[in-house]
Amino acid sequence: MRAPPGATASPRYAVAVACASTWSGPGTPPARASCWESFGYTAADPSHVTQWGLDPIVRSHNAPTPIAPTPNLFTRAARTATGLSIDEQPGVQVAVAGHEVAYDADRRLWYADIELSGGLAYYPFIRLVLARYQPNSIPGAHLSRLVLADFAQIAPDRMATVTFNSKDAHQMRITVAGPAPYRTTNSVVVSLEQQLTGADGGDELLGWIPVGKGALTLRSTTVKNETLWSGEYTVPPLPTPPPPLRLVIREFELYPSNGEEITIAATPATRLVYAEVLDILLPT
Prior knowledge:
mainly beta; six-stranded mixed beta sheet; six-stranded antiparallel beta sheet; elongated
């Protein structure tokens, strides 16, 4: 995701769902729904409801609700409903969060983008149960047969902010905030890049090189159960007028690894878990 100059960026917990089935009825296809247990005298089979849980190898805050997300946590849901029946388990009633679908002509697939509010959980796992949902239906026929999706890990929210020093236009304060593991060893690294004149061939994604000799590693602190990475960056001297600039922010997770060799003592390795690019316009 690219943000306007000096703006903040805050991607949310999200997962994309694609469906290869065709739709031959009038108008747009029914919404794709995620199902979870609503109420009833019979408990739903676990394979018939959406569930989520923490990564067992990471010490993290809990998700907002145990076992399953509730309707209000699906922030892009077009419609929710409760008390619906499913063919797979008569006597059980479920709730659904219906999402609008769109068609990808290149992949020839219908898809829906689902966003969830995961609170302070760090990379929780989720297993969606999906169905076609027709809100305007006779009783007992609102949902199609269920489809159990694979487990997926959803990335935590991050908010990156860049503010300029009012007394020095070349001094920036950079912060990144969001959920992280307890006593996190995640590191956030920031680098400034400039675009070479004429090297991009008109493509804004090409021709970028680092400015200066190195990157800045932000300091981490805990603020209200969230982790805040922050630091000050001084822009080095640039030609006049300055070239196009962008700030590249990367977060790396540190974990033990033996690589390809079998050894007793594991060596630290890194995994990129978050990246953001912000266009920078220096104040005049």
